Description:
Layout: H1 3-10, E1 41-43, H2 45-52, H3 58-66, E2 69-72, H4 73-85, H5 93-106, E3 112-113, H6 117-133, H7 138-156, E4 160-163, H8 166-175, E5 181-183
Helix pairs in contact: 1-6, 4-5, 4-7, 6-7
Amino acid sequence: MSSESRAFQRHDPGFYNTTLAYRGRSELPWSLGAIASDAILMLDTTVYIDAQMAKLPQALSARIATAEIVHSAVALGELAVNLGLLDSAHVGTPVVRKVLGETLAQADPKRTVSPSTEAWLEAAILTGILARTQSFQKGDRRKLLNDALIFLSADEADAVLVSRNVKDIDLLSQLRPNVRVLLYDQM
């Protein structure tokens, strides 16, 4: 069976005809204690940004410091695009470039994973379903596709996705509830 048909069989777009409701906070995975101590973690782009700004919760920061980490090539790409977007004439650009460059340099290429073809196809289907049922604007669709790619890459890497992106991860988790996720709030 081709990966296209597996992705389509898992998520028949015709099945999804209503808007998904965002779940209440108590229904979402916030507890660091619920994650096995030896679990592999994949960091969403929000984690890198919050770590750079010292806005990660202390318990999460301590856990990341000791956990086995796999990096998402998509999340690293989301960080790297900012290197090109930064205005070289802005006074703060050199500092931001330095921090982003150091963050990217610390990501071990041997511990960086890219989405498979199957993940790309499934992410595209999920993005289309959610864009249609949730009435996402065109600009939000590309961001959602990246979120879906990171989300599915975590599953492929048998990792727990750590993210502050509650809204998109909530929707994706409703379509793929078996993907392990840990959500957090900024300090």
